[in-house]
Amino acid sequence: MRTAIVDDVIDTAALLDEAQRDSNGAIVLFVGTVRDNNSGRLVTGIDYACYGAMAARELASICAEAAERFATVDIVVEHRIGHLTVGETSLAIAVGHARRATAYEASRYVIEQIKRRLPIWKREEYTDGTREWVDPTAVAVVGPES
Q1: Tens-digit pLDDT profile for residues 87-128
Q2: Residue 112: inside a domain, yes or no?
């Protein structure tokens, strides 16, 4: 298991390699990227900020909980901070497990706990030049095509 708060590009292939083990029948990779819109506004980028020591401890705690709950130590998570533009990877979670359903469940648990508990804040930049802090726990209203 490894977790990190990083300020450089996330190498998703490296995370997959870290989660690999001969006994794993599945490796699930979740990649969160900066999208070009949020709540009807066009986005050009996001600034991610955090209190580093606290964020690192909480991320490790979340993954330790997942490892115990889903019986796997093959969990690797990196969350990027700093300025990211549309399309860049902000978060990657790799989970290896003997069974695919459990790998998916563990990955889902990690991302949901990150959204609720991780002290990382994001400020979106919009095409009109404004910036706004975003509540990471807010759920966007989406249509049937989502």
Answers
A1: 999 999 999 999 999 999 999 999 999 999 999 999 999 999
A2: yes
Q: Provide the domain limits for residue 103.
A: 2-128
**CATH number, domain at 27?**
3.90.1170.40
Does 138 reside within a domain? Answer: no
On whether residue 144 sits in a domain, the answer given is no
Three-state SS annotation for 11-69:
CHHHHHHHHCCCCCCEEEEEEEECCCEECCEEEEEEEEEECHHHHHHHHHHHHHHHHHH
d(CA 38, CA 85): 14
Q: How many domains does the chain have?
A: 1
Residues contacting 67, CB < 8 A, separation 6+: 1, 73, 75
pLDDT of residue 44: 98
Confidence of residue 141 (pLDDT cuts 50, 70, 90): very low
